[in-house]
Sequence to fold (197 residues):
Amino acid sequence: MFLRTFSRPATPANTQAAPLAAGLIAGTLVETQRGWTPVEHLRLGDRVQTFDGGACPILALDRNWTGSETHAVHVPGGLLDTCTDLTLLPGQHVLIDTMGDAELPDAALVLIPATALVGWRGTRRVALTSAVEIITPFFASEEAVFANTGAMVRCAAVATVANAPLQSDFTRLNLLQAWALLARLDGNAPDAARKVA
Fold:
């Protein structure tokens, strides 16, 4: 079985020059067979509860660090069915319910980038003023894992570690499509604040 941890030490010389787009920020809770576990405590082989694949083993872990001055997305507790506030990197994709949206009749759930949530129901852009650890678990296939009890966040398949991206099992919306969906869910037009995210 393929098991590997990719680690980068937390020193100023090894922090990312370009901001990381996705991955889970240290402190995010994920559901494992040991219970709700901070993502930074995950180990290879841990079984994580996924949306449609049951408890799946982690086959690879990438551990990295943001640079200082990185922006993130703050999701208030309760939104996306979370138990507490959740902080996501802007490019981290989340799975959301389309609530029977007439324009997406074949997709009950869709992936949207976290940055699309800015301006929606109290979600806002925040600055991370110091480097934080980012942990990315990889599975045998693309999965959505539960974070902070209710949010469903996308995790990639191990093949993407080797730069061989797989076709997504989920319908993925781009930023404009995501804004339009969120506006329809709220029954109004996208606001200007969301467009500056």
Q: What stands out?
A: The chain has a mean pLDDT of 85. The two ends are 40 Å apart (CA to CA). Helices lie at 175-186, 192-195.
